[in-house]
Design goal:
single chain; 516 residues; mainly alpha
């Protein structure tokens, strides 16, 4: 496959992934106020609880998702189709077993939810049916991981994300139908989950890009020897993931237990929807970077790895800072238009969450290198320490700060994690220049965004524009002009973009002349 084709596929994956996440966020942005208004703030909190439980059980992946993409990518580059066949078939057994266990857990949770969460009597039957629906869909969701891993290794993320766009549109349609035809909450939840399963048959069909049949790739057949290579690598990711996922996904569950009521989960869901847009972009970048970083790491070229991390961090930061500070600038106005003036008090928590996400996501290129190298032992310790320190914060402050307790807890967790990366992991383990990464790649974009934020805020205040859509448009326009002027003058360089195209996205076996 030519280098031009490779670049096109990977940039297509990023572009379609971003579009899918934007559409998904836009659908939630439009439908959540309508759903909260129709079902009520307290009952809608059940959906946030169900999603959080489902997300937390992703721990059962055991890190296999990252490990499989890494090894599948390397085997595709070497055309080791027999290894791919054996591990793919074993993965079907592995994920199928986890799906069954997951289904059983949801089934049991249906009857014991009253002992774990602060549920009102009228919410118990609704909660029970939600757990049954999640139980029925669990096996299909888990098995679909194998298909996406295989497609990721073949640089088919563009197709995967195009199909995800269809799912986002269906989610939006389901919400509108639920409100229009006055569906009960359980019926809405059923069709919502059903719409998330729609991409599966399309992705399965796309596996024809492999020189192996669907039967060869997806037939359940255990091969412990072949699978051992991935599971050995993945277990370290799993242990680290326990603490990362616990620190993130256990927060709303703790709110359901210790906060003043289930309506707090609706507050959490409102600002989570906005923050998750940025987290989704980071996930896309990691998804795209991991296969490429794995191939570059296999070349054992340290200068190239360092330059890849520095340049990728720079341009990911340019994009993330643009979006994050734009949302921060308009936080109060967005909440006013989104949910009404009763929700504007969430602006401060939304801002803190967005800054936390920015701090986390700018580190995506380094994370892709860590996952490619397999040097994750020290990260397990830092994740454990950060998790143990941050979770009690949510529990202690939940009765008084409500959703703010979860936001502060996550902020503390991320400060510890990123601090460990820059103080120890990047310079000592990865042997990279931490100053170049932070001050050379990340900080310039933050500085430009902060300057644009200040100008946009004070000009908007000086013009005395009423809150609402006009305020957002005026401040955003001023912010955008100042931000892009700064980035074009001090940050963005054509030579760097050419480097990313020619070196970061180069596939195995392509000897492209380096221009650095």
């Amino acid at each position: 496959m030519s280098s031009q084709s490779s670049v096109k596929r990977i940039f297509s994956g990023s572009a379609w992934g971003i579009l899918a996440k934007i559409l998904d966020a836009a659908a939630k942005f439009v439908t959540i106020p309508l759903l909260v208004g129709y079902y009520g703030k307290v009952d809608y909190g059940l959906i946030a609880l169900a999603f959080s439980l489902n997300a937390y059980l992703r721990l059962m992946d055991l890190g296999m998702n990252v490990g499989s993409v890494r090894f599948f990518s390397m085997w595709v580059a070497k055309e080791e189709w027999e290894k791919i066949q054996k591990v793919s078939s074993s993965s079907i057994v592995f994920y199928g077993s986890i799906g069954l266990i997951n289904a059983l857990i949801f089934f049991l949770m249906a009857d014991y939810g009253r002992y774990f969460f602060n549920l009102a009597d009228h919410q118990l039957p609704i909660y029970r049916w939600m757990m049954y629906i999640l139980s029925a869909s669990a096996i299909f969701n888990w098995l679909s991981n194998v298909v996406i891993q295989l497609l990721s290794a073949k640089d088919e993320l563009g197709y995967v994300n195009r199909v995800t766009v269809l799912s986002s549109i269906l989610n939006f349609v389901v919400a509108l139908l639920a409100i229009t035809f006055e569906w009960p909450l359980t019926l809405y939840f059923f069709f919502y989950i059903l719409s998330t399963l729609v991409p599966i048959p399309f992705n399965v069909h796309r596996l024809r890009v492999y020189p192996l049949s669907l039967v060869q790739l997806l037939r359940p057949k255990w091969d412990g020897k072949a699978f051992k290579e991935i599971i050995g690598y993945s277990m370290a990711i799993f242990v680290m993931g326990i603490f990362q996922l616990t620190a993130n996904e256990l927060r709303p569950i703790l709110l359901a237990k210790y906060a003043s009521g289930m309506d707090v989960l609706t507050d959490y869901r409102v600002i989570q929807t906005i923050a998750m847009l940025i987290l989704s972009f980071g996930g896309i970048f990691l998804q795209v970077l991991l296969p490429s970083a794995s191939k570059i790491y296999a070349e054992n070229n340290h200068p190239k790895l360092e330059k890849m991390v520095i340049e990728a961090t720079k341009y990911i930061s340019v994009f993330l800072c643009l979006i994050v500070f734009l949302l921060i600038l308009n936080a109060s106005d967005i909440l006013l238009l989104y949910m009404g003036e009763d929700y504007q008090y969430l602006a401060i928590w939304m801002i803190i969450w967005l800054l936390t996400v920015l701090l986390s996501m700018h580190n995506t290129p380094v994370a892709s290198l860590v996952l490619s190298s397999g040097k994750t032992k020290q990260l397990v310790y830092s994740s454990a320490a950060a998790c143990i320190i941050s979770l009690p914060i949510t529990v202690i402050f939940a009765p008084t700060l409500n959703v703010g307790a979860a936001v502060i807890g996550y902020f503390v967790y991320m400060i510890i994690q990123i601090g460990f990366f820059y103080v120890y992991y990047i310079p000592k383990i990865l042997k990279l220049n931490n100053s170049k990464i932070f001050f050379g790649s990340f900080f310039p974009s933050v500085l430009g965004a902060f300057i644009a934020f200040v100008v946009g805020h004070y000009v908007g205040h000086w013009l005395n524009i009423p809150e609402g859509i006009i305020s957002i448009l005026v401040k955003s326009s001023i912010y955008g002009i100042v931000y892009f002027a700064f980035q074009l003058a001090f940050v963005i360089k054509k030579a760097d973009i050419n480097y990313l195209k020619e070196h970061l996205l180069k596939k195995k076996g392509q000897n492209i002349e380096e221009n650095d």
